[in-house]
Amino acid sequence: xxxxxxxxxxxxxxxxxxxxxxxxxxxxxxxxxxxxxxxxxxxxxxxxxxxxxxxxxxxxxxxxxxxxxxxxxxxxxxxxxxxxxxxxxxxxxxxxxxxxxxxxxxxxxxxxxxxxxxxxxxxxxxxxxxxxxxxxxxxxxxxxxxxxxxxxxxxxxxxxxxxxxxxxxxxxxxxxxxxxxxxxxxxxxxxxxxxxxxxxxxxxxxxxxxxxxxxxxxxxxxxxxxxxxxxxxxxxxxxxxxxxxxxxxxxxxxxxxxxxxxxxxxxxxxxxxxxxxxxxxxxxxxxxxxxxxxxxxxxxxxxxxxxxxxxxxxxxxxxxxxxxxxxxxxxxxxxxxxxxxxxxxxxxxxxxxxxxxxxxxxxxxxxxxxxxxxxxxxxx
Length: 380
Ligand code: COS
Known about the structure:
By secondary structure, this protein is of the alpha+beta class. The protein is 52% helix and 16% strand. A hairpin with a 2-residue loop joins β9 (270-271) and β10. α4 runs antiparallel to α5 (103-115) and α7 runs antiparallel to α8.
């Protein structure tokens, strides 16, 4: 057993941390306040290889593995959780196309994602009435000569207004076929019939872009199909397994930032002639938070290591995502409490971390869905 990071992993961690300290953390609060999509910051991340951390160099990626990806995600989320989710989804889209795409699809799209030519990629699975149960989706793709015609709605699409390419899932059989007749397609931004809908006014992650999409008679060539006909559900599940490592890491980054803020505040703030960090009530909150944070980190890095080493990692990714996001919720709550009234106003970053943390228990599979995945594996 070896808990040491490799030279590559340390280098990615340090490079990301330096960038975040210099260029991301100082602007995170303003990005949040103005809801500004972090275009320049994402371009800088692409220049550092962070838009394709686990993607081969031949396709413009850093080819540095899944553990490096998790470490980079923790650092970016520590600075700005909105930028982190945009990076996470773009990495996920690049990996899906790398894993399941034809040569033509890979060489056309992946370098544009990794280089930053595309500001982001989008993952379009959820629908207004198909969230935890994507097998009930209603978006349909009908054969049209050699190609397809796509009709339907998607919801909660991260970076939808800015993405160069969308990975879109659609039904290619009747509704009763459930998960067995879902196919995956690549759709470019600007495709006739694709409309970007309502921009969500979210509680947190306000600098990330979340929209609905509608597809009205979008014509797709045969070459737009990703993977095999009716093989799309498995692609979605495998992508989400990897995505959950990203969200676990994002949760860890947010919780790390929150704890750093709380520690600094506890040392600085004096009440009854002593720093509040001298009181056991505050110490216990910090101690519990640090313990949970490190436990989450071990789970997330273990899941990342398993994926990197080609071991089955679905359960581990679900456990990491469940534990890290739930722990993050408890940590930001305690850290806000340490700040007292100052935690409840926008002047201190803890208020943003508290809002940003909440969605990690919801997206890329709710905590309840993670428990379904874990329980099925335990009972199998
Ligand atoms: N990897 C590969 N294949 C998988 C898989 C995985 N992790 N999980 C399921 N599959 C396959 C199954 O093997 C099955 O294949 P066959 O039809 O060949 O037997 C198929 O997918 C259907 O699986 P299952 O019957 O388990 O599907 P369910 O509809 O019961 O759904 C859950 C299972 C709940 C795990 C799934 O719907 C899920 O993950 N939901 C949450 C979705 C989500 O995270 N949404 C957020 C989107 S991003 S914001």
